[in-house]
Amino acid sequence: MEKRDQLYEGKAKVLFSTDDENKLIQYFKDDATAFNGVKKGQITDKGVLNNLISARLMGLLEVVGIPVHFIERLSEREQLVRRVEIVPVEVVVRNRAAGSMSKRLGIKEGTILPRPVVEFYLKSDELDDPLITLDHIEVFNWASHDEVDQMIEMSHRVNDVLLGYYANIGIHLIDYKLEFGRLSNDPDTLVLADEISPDSCRLWDMKTGKKLDKDRFRRDLGNVEEAYQEVVDRMGLS
After folding, report:
1. Four-CA torsion 43, 44, 48, 50, nearest 10 degrees
2. Cα separation of 97 and 204, whole Å?
């Protein structure tokens, strides 16, 4: 697969075209941001570790029938992915209260929710990714009613798989963000896109409550690289 022009650079990844118009190369950077780019830094080898983690989890989800943009891991920092048009709605699945939910609703961090909560946020750094409703999504045509139903259904299926996977390696999956996209060669088909990694998930050690995710960077807790590496080690990817 021939890497060609750079098409996009985000906070954590770069996308390149290839000799196949329907496939892209996704490159993982070491850049770290928080609070929609207000806080910036670098986490040594974050891109390498996130590429490993996301490749394993995307592959696992595809095996159980969840459509994903991921095709294969090409190198330490690169993946081959299907080209998609990203739906401008971020889906957050919460199993326990943490982060913005705790601040917004005054619920103690770590509180177990009676059932998983699915929230929607407009994908917009300029507006600080505001919380939105199902009506907003449909009224402003960010996604169709059928696409919203698919995103909710797929998010719950992802949650079932990842909860069990992480529990087996001694980690609580607190919450996480998902993004979806429409395939460039089949716009009616919605797939899971972007990445699943400690950048986009809250992961706490089951015994100690130690945070093993980007909150260590957000909250200046230190040992960020070590936390990401610990997730890799527990997943058997070292």
Report:
1. -20
2. 12
Q: What is the DSSP letter of 211?
A: B
pLDDT on residue 35: 73
pLDDT, tens only, 155-173: 999 999 999 999 999 999 9
Class of domain 3-84 (CATH, top level): alpha beta
Secondary structure element (H or E) that encloses residue 231, with its range: helix 224-234
Collect all residues with Cβ–Cβ distance below 8 Å to 132 and sequence separation of at least 6. Answer: 89, 120, 121, 122
> CA-CA distances (angstroms) from residue 90 to 35, 133, 142?
15, 12, 11
Q: Which residues contact 149 (CB under 8 A, 6 or more apart)?
A: none
Residue type, 30: D
Model's pTM, two decimal places? 0.95
Q: Which helix (H) or strand (E) holds 135?
A: helix 134-139
What is the rounded CA–CA span in Å between residue 88 and residue 216?
Answer: 27
42 DSSP β-pair partners: 31
**What is residue 151's DSSP assignment?**
H
Q: Which CATH superfamily is domain 85-223 in?
A: ATP-grasp fold, B domain (3.30.470.20)
Task: Please state, for a pLDDT cut of 70, what percent of the chain lies above it.
Answer: 99
- By DSSP bridging, strand 84-86 and strand 131-132 are unpaired
The whole-angstrom distance between residue 77's C-alpha and the CA centroid of its chain comes to 16
Is 212:199 a contact under the CB 8 Å cutoff? no
Average pLDDT score over residue span 30-58 = 90
